[in-house]
Amino acid sequence: MTGSAALLRGIDLAAFAVALVTRARRAGVDVSASGAARFTEALRVLPPTDRRRLYWTARVSLVGRHSDIERFDAVFAAVFDDAVLALDPAARASVSNTSRTRADGRSGDGGASAGPRRRAAPPWATLDDAAAPVPDRSADDGATAVTLRLPSPLEAIADEPFGQLRDDDLRLLGRWLEQTEPNWPRRPSRRREPHRHGRVDLRATIRRARGTGFEPVRLVRCRPRERPRRIVLLCDVSRSMHGYADVYVHLMRAAVVRGNAEVFAFSTHLTRLTPVLAHRSADVAVARASERVVDRFGGTHIAGSLAALLSSPHGSALRGAVVIVASDGWDSDEPADLARAVARIRRRAHRVVWLNPRAAAPGFEPAAGPMAAALPHCDHFLSAHTIATLGEMLTTVARSAGVARARDSGEG
Q: Which of 29, 141, 223, 366 could lock onto 371 through a cystine, CB 3.0 to 4.6 A?
């Protein structure tokens, strides 16, 4: 082949890129959300003249991890090993029908059996339907895995456990969290703002009708103005949370800087970190927070720390807030005390979210006494042990915060 027209003559480059990305994701290649767009642009700027150039254009545009190269090579070989480059719809349909009945018995996907990763149904229950068993869609051949939209340096470590991140990765993660303001939960306020899909604003409509003989020729509509919902984040910094507490400190700082938040750290006792983490420098804020928490990597008293928050002047911040407790649930206090404290918090809060980084371990069950006692009073029980699951947690919290639920009467 001597020209680009001979290789991709009459081909819709966008459809070609999307088809190859879909096949790669089915084989387990972690292609970013912008991978298809980058590949399409690369094909337009530098049209491939042979298979080798097409391979390197696709690999540079779509593969971001060294561990995915072998899977990508298998997909590319399965698509382009044949002499005929069937890319138009008619030829693609005929080749797909014959590829399923190849003599060696392999499928047209190059024998790659690793499909898109799916979250298994958790063996526990919380108050929200989000913890219900996830239906098995493994038989859906048309399903496409959509990856989390992250800055390119974070894509390579999106699935790395927090305990394996370096200091540079933590700084990059902190900057990314500070830019997630649209994902923080919001609530409707009493003030209203003009909006074309809202309800009719009678006062504004009548005021405008004064210029048309008091005939409401044009209706004025409005809706409640949204404000940031308060977030109360409590992070366990005991010895059992070593390796995860540093990441959750960056999460607390992002909540303070970008949202309406109150943040606390606890081990043997409760420490308020809201004014410390409000510093404009992330490095200074994290360093001062480490100096402020004198009981870091010590024992754990979750029930006593939550009870101290409820009885303190800052306990009023829990009303109508999204309360996030980041802890593995290993507590020295009695499980009954923890259950009473979490139940009281739930009666004040809008949502209670428990982050347990050990929940992602294979075969994990919240069988420990404190964790099992607190779980029935939580709306969500999430792992948040990697950057990808942390982004899912932010999305879950933002969506659930806008859904009103029945309030328990009274406060203990």
A: 366
